[in-house]
Amino acid sequence: MRLKSKIFITLIVICCITALMTGCVTTKTTEQQGSDKQEMETSKEEKKNFNETGYPIVNEKITVKSVYSNHPYYGNAEEMSLWTTLEEITNIHIDWEKYESGQFELYFVSGEMPDFFMNGINAEEVYKYGIEGGLFYDFNDYLEYMPNLRKIFEKYPTAEKAIIQDNGAIYTLPKISRSSTSSRTRPEYRTDYVEKVGVKPPETADEFYNVAKAVLDAGLTGGYAPLIPQD
After folding, report:
1. Cα(226)–Cα(216) distance, rounded to whole angstroms?
2. What is the three-class DSSP state of 217?
3. What is the four-CA torsion angle of 197, 201, 206, 211, rounded to 10 degrees?
């Protein structure tokens, strides 16, 4: 049977939570087509529980599911104060699940998809599962509930243009970096170099500079480019 479920995907925190407040994702099969009346009653209950303005977003706590890439860069979402604080404010609990490399496609094949993907969706997959597959919600239908996102679009109009798909839909939300360059990097160091120069592992930017200078002065970089510009 053709899967008709739709899911939310997002990269913006507040907008993501606001988008999810409209209800849970459903999978409708041929066997379930006779349950329209029950679904209408459920929808009425959801509307009663939902606050269009202010917080909490819902009166009685609801749980939504999200998955994200199992990469050290992201850490454990359930332990982040950002999400625990948002749960207190919105009354929405997120059940987090990490997915391993190669597991991503299984969510679409099995139909057991989360309410939203926190990350990991690339442009090709947005086209395949959004435009062609119709599996993603169009955020245009929910912008009235997203004042923060509308303000972002007003301030950064190019961000809105960047996420509008060929069919005019918005399936993902923008990630805006205001750094001075188009890319960001994290400082890293070789522990064996640190041990050789006899200094403690750096914990601050100043300590990292001192370690890098000690390694440079010790001549451990060999023929590689210097760690610190000579000028």
Report:
1. 7
2. helix
3. 20
